Amino acid sequence: MGLLTGETLGPLAVALAIFLLLVDLMHRRQRWAPRYPPGPMPLPGLGNQLQLDFHDLLSCFTRLRSRFGHVFSLQLARTPVVIINGLAAMREALVDQSEDTADRPPVPVFEHLDFGPHAQGRPFSPNALLNKAVGNVIASLTFGRRFEYNDRRFLKLLDLANEQLKENSGFLPQVLHAIPVLVHIPGLVDKAFAAQRAFMALVDELVAENRMTRDPAQPPRDLTDAFLDEVEKAKGNPESSFNDENLRLVVTDLFFAGIVTTSTTLAWALLLMILHPDVQRRVQQEIDEVIGQARRPEMGDQAHMPFTMAVVHEVQRFGDIIPLGLPHMTSRDIEVQGFRIPKGTWLFTNLSSVLKDETVWKKPFRFHPEHFLDAQGRFVKQEAFMPFSAGRRSCLGEPLARMELFLFFTCLLQRFSFSVPAGQPRPSDHGVYGGLVTPSPYLLCAVPR
Ligand code: HEM
User: Fold this and answer.
1) C-alpha separations of 302 from 299, 310, 402, 418 in Å
2) Which residues cross the membrane (predicted)?
3) E strand or H helix at 260
4) Where does residue 398 fall: left (phi above 0), alpha (psi -120 to 50 degrees), or beta otherwise?
5) Are 124 and 118 spatial neighbours (Cβ–Cβ below 8 Å)?
6) Average pLDDT along the chain
7) Considering just the CA atoms, what is the radius of gyration of the chain in Å?
8) Which residue among 41, 77, 260, 289 is buried most deeply as judged by most CB within 10 Å?
9) Residues 6 or more apart from 123 whose CB is under 8 A from it?
10) How far apart are CA 243 and CA 237, in angstroms?
11) Residue owning the nearest CA to atom 41 of ligand 1
12) For ligand 1, is residue 325 a contact (CB within 6 Å)?
């Protein structure tokens, strides 16, 4: 230690600073590669971290897009990221070069995680009921069972799924994502992801019960049984991905990704129906004509219900619940809109910029079911309808989600009329961001028809 005198300290500090700048420069050298997408100048070591508001990334991206164009770049600490905006660039990246943009970036933090009063007509918030209804669909698929609405473990599971979502966008997890070396501090990951840990512990319990009641001689009752059959077949093959660890991750993923997304979309649907009673009446009229009151809706009814289909699509477009998608990573050098994006670059897909693309939609920021209807009132698909993302890595639950949205929505409107509670102000149709974009909390009244 005696070596560190005042005389040696100065040159040492300069050498260290030069070394750190060189390391930083190496991470940033992409910026000077020909045709790399433009972006704001990053600071040494920090990148653009301090120039972004992580609570409102979408507005930041909108501002940066108007300055730098549809394809621009950022440096998040040491990670280079390219942000894709608008229909044309998104199609080029996710659809035309689907194979090369379908990777997910590694997230070191996760590797350390091992993974009411609603009497008739009275105002209530529909969120908890929607979560339970949608939760039981996933429970039927994964565990071949449904839960009673007052089941203690089921309530905990749903609570934790919602908590987990908020947890991920919290301060500590953001710090851990930005500075992955911190994951080695004992206890920090557990603290940052407490809900996620508790969620997985519950899933483990349910998987164990499924395993105990399973009869291998019988056909599989659910996804867990089918997976366990495959685990047995793959015994002794270390290459196989059918193992116990992956079973808990698959079930956790399905529960987490499958419940909050669909129930949030249904919460948007009910909100938009109480805000637009004329639209609600037209949907009910179509239900009465095509289905009637004597039987339940079926998927086959979709073909005869263009207005309802348009409304469900417009709810998803307007709700825009995953505005920035999930991160992708290029597995090869690619070109988008004339810019070169090297292999291994993170891509953020600004789905919101497509769902609300002003060059595509007549009224991008208004709820307008006619976006999906032609002049004759027939349902029309729109290429810029991308709430599930696009290309090879798009949502694997899309077919199930579409079924749930249509069947729950039509069943609810077949039986009930929904309205803003008497004497209450009109709820806002602005979303709030907390992992997903959810409607601002609201109450409604449901009156049997
Ligand atoms: C309205 C409902 C839903 C919406 C809007 C939605 C949207 C999305 C989006 C935008 C992604 C990211 C795709 C990408 O990276 O390009 C995604 C991924 C995913 N979704 Fe959905 N989703 C919904 C429902 C569901 C359901 C019901 C399930 C499960 C049954 C599910 C399971 C998943 C899974 C497991 C992934 C990750 C797939 C992967 O990493 O390859 N989602 N979803």
Assistant:
1) 6, 10, 11, 22
2) 6-26, 254-275
3) helix 244-275
4) alpha
5) yes
6) 90
7) 25
8) 260
9) 421, 424, 443, 444, 445
10) 10
11) 393
12) yes
Q: How far is the CA of 395 from the centre of ligand 1 (A)?
A: 4
* Ligand 1 geometric centre to CA of 103 (Å): 15
Q: Which residues pair with 432 in a beta bridge?
A: 438
> pTM value?
0.88
φ, ψ of residue 433 to 5 degrees: the values are -95, 125
Q: CB 233: neighbour CB atoms within 10 A?
A: 11
Residue 269 CB–ligand 1 contact under 6 Å: no
Specify the residue for token string 């409607």. Answer: 439
Nearest to 207 by CA among 155, 252, 164: 252
Length of the chain: 449
Tell me, using a 6 A CB cutoff, whether residue 393 lines ligand 1.
yes
Q: Looking at residue 363, what DSSP letter applies?
A: S
H or E segment and range at residue 152 = helix 152-168
> In whole angstroms, how far apart are CA 56 and each of 60, 277, 425, 434?
7, 31, 27, 10
> Counting Cβ atoms within 10 Å, is residue 174 exposed (0-12), middle (13-18) or buried (19+)?
middle
Atom of ligand 1 nearest to the CA of 400: 27
Q: Residue 69, by phi and psi: left (phi above 0), alpha (psi -120 to 50) or beta? A: left
Say what percent of the chain tops pLDDT 90: 70
Which protein residue's CA is at the shortest distance from atom 21 of ligand 1?
Answer: 395
Tokens of 257: 């990704």
Token output for 102: 């379908």
Tokens of 58: 């979408």
271 pLDDT higher than 70: yes
Handedness of CA 110, 78, 52, 16 (dihedral sign): positive
The three-class DSSP label of residue 432 is strand
Ligand 1 contact, 436 CB (< 6 A): no
Strand 339-341 relative to strand 334-336: parallel, antiparallel, unpaired? antiparallel
Q: In testing the pocket of ligand 1, which one of 353, 388, 436 has its CB within 8 Å of the most ligand atoms?
A: 388
Instruction: Give phi and psi for 124, each to the nearest 5.
Output: -150, 160
Task: Tell me the C-alpha distance between 43 and 50, whole Å.
Answer: 9
145-195 pLDDT, tens digit per residue, is 999 999 999 999 999 988 887 777 667 777 777 777 777 777 777 777 888
